[in-house]
Amino acid sequence: MFTVSDEWKAAYPGAAVGVLVIRNAENPEHLDALDQRKEELERQIRARWAGKDKAALRAIPTLRAYAAYYQRFDKTYHVQLQLESVALKGKSIPRVAALVEAMFMAELKNLLLTAGHDLQAIEGVVRLDVASGNERYVMLNGQVQTLKPGDMYMRDAQSVISSVLYGPDQRTRITPATRHALFTVYAPPGIGAEAVRAHLEDIRDNVLLISAQAEAQSLEVHIAE
Question: N or C: which end of the chain has fewer CB within 10 A?
Fold first, then answer.
């Protein structure tokens, strides 16, 4: 189902990737229990960072690890901007389909970059690799994007399904009809396997709150070493 390339191991020693497969999940547009958990998470984040500024957030070790990766490409880690929005500006986590909210909530709590996919849209084995700069795919917004050389990305037997810099693709996106999901986590050096595993467990727990009959079929963490 999932493999990593030797090129990735060589390019990013100490990096990690996580994979979670969920089957038989419901995916409602709205769920009171999930809203309550989301509101509690927002309260905790705002209480933790009350009176702090952007510099304090950017000093978080996890965000510093991602910043080091993104700075190589002259880009800013978007999860950092989402944390600033909730913690410093009082904004809420967007309401979307429940499976996507489950991922967003864990992403904001743990600050680890995550992509969600409809498992039934995945073809063959998913492979984590390092871009040469020739790979192209259709992003969520429908635009065709060429990958930056050196960026971490994943592809299935058909095409790229996500990259660190540009996010998930349109073809395998989670939709209201999704019942089987694949969640993947990109972690640059400095994050570690335990943080990735705990993050996947948070996503799993959020999904089980949505859908008690859902099954976490697989939870894997791979380290570049």
Answer: C
List the alpha helices (DSSP H) in 129-214. Answer: 193-210
Span 194-206, pLDDT tens digits: 999 999 999 999 9
pTM listed for this prediction: 0.95
Are 1 and 218 in contact by the 8 Å Cβ rule? The answer is yes
User: What CA–CA distance (Å, rounded) separates 64 from 80?
Assistant: 10
Residues of the chain by 3-state class (helix, strand, coil), percent to 5: 35, 25, 40
Which one is the CATH code of 2-28+96-223: 1.10.10.10, 3.40.1790.10, 3.50.40.10, 2.60.40.10?
Answer: 3.50.40.10
Spans of the chain below 50 pLDDT: none
3-state secondary structure of 167: strand
- What element of type H or E holds 60? none
175-220 per-position pLDDT tens digit: 999 999 999 999 999 999 999 999 999 999 999 999 999 999 999 9
The two tokens of residue 86 are 């909730």
Beta bridge partners of 219: 20
Q: Report whether 3 contacts 71 (CB < 8 A).
A: no
Let me know how long the chain is: 225
**Cα torsion 55, 58, 61, 65: sign:** negative
Q: What is the 8-class DSSP label of residue 177?
A: T
Domain boundary assignment for the chain: 2-28+96-223
